Amino acid sequence: MDQSKLFNNCRNRWANVEDYFGFASAALMQAAKSIAASEDKSKEEITQKLELLKQYADRIAKLDVMCKSRARVSKELFNKSKDAPLEPGQIKEIYEQGLENTQQTVDQTSTSNHPELINIERILQKVSDGMTDNDIEEDLTTQQAPTLCPILRCALDNPMKNTECGHIYSLKGVIQLLMHDNAPKGRDVPETIAEVPNHFSARCPQFGCNKLLRPSSLKRDFATELTQRQQQGSAQEPESVEIEDF
Ligand SMILES: [Zn+2]
Fold it and tell me: Where in the numbering of this chain does the SP-RING-type domain appear (predicted)?
């Protein structure tokens, strides 16, 4: 296998690991919400459990940064080895330099601004403020994810969140919108956000929202995806029972 192919495989593998961290964070958030809303536990018990989840979320946030750096280094190696294979010395240099840069980022940036950590912190605050179960329940359910894509007007598929406003669209819909508003007619519509030129932009199509929508402001929405998978899982359950009965 040629060198650049190998680096590309590496990059894809790290991207897969990144996805696992995304789902792990989403699952942690679900756990935090259900703990906060549990009626049979004392305030101390709830706080203790949430503090533990916060530690896990912090660890995941740190691993996520490290994982992203390895993906970035693999991408750099892939790009630089496209035309001609790199010498072992060059590979070592690029790799070590890339990892060193990340280590600095991990050291400098506090993971405390990671969204999951902020959310768990918020739930902890509510518990310590002595909110009733109903208050917490109400607060948490208002954030329920939508099920329809505002662009394609059908069920959300591969949900992507706009970090500018929090609105969620289907991957296919948001790519279509960005291409429609920016690219000359007849141009091929790519399958991934990474292939959409970075300077392309549109207005958020959600009614009443006027925020900007750009490839760089879109993030895969693991929380909605996890909920969807769980719902699909529970919908499929009766079917498998039937097969067993048969
Ligand atoms: Zn919006």
Answer: 143-210
CA of 194 to the centre of ligand 1 (A): 20
Angle at 166 between CA 225 and CA 32, to 5 degrees: 60
pTM of the model: 0.76
Distance 186 CA to ligand 1 centre (A): 27
**What are the E-state strand segments in the chain?**
159-162, 168-170, 202-203, 212-213, 218-220
| Cα 206 to middle of ligand 1, angstroms | 5
16 CA distance to ligand 1 middle (Å): 28
pLDDT digits (tens, 9 = 90+) for 118-132: 888 888 888 888 766
**What CA–CA distance (Å, rounded) separates 198 from 52?**
39
- Could you tell me the distance, in angstroms and rounded to a whole number, from the CA of residue 214 to the centre of ligand 1? 11
C-alpha to C-alpha distance for 98 and 106, rounded to whole angstroms: 13
Burial class (CB in 10 A: 0-12, 13-18, 19+), 94: middle
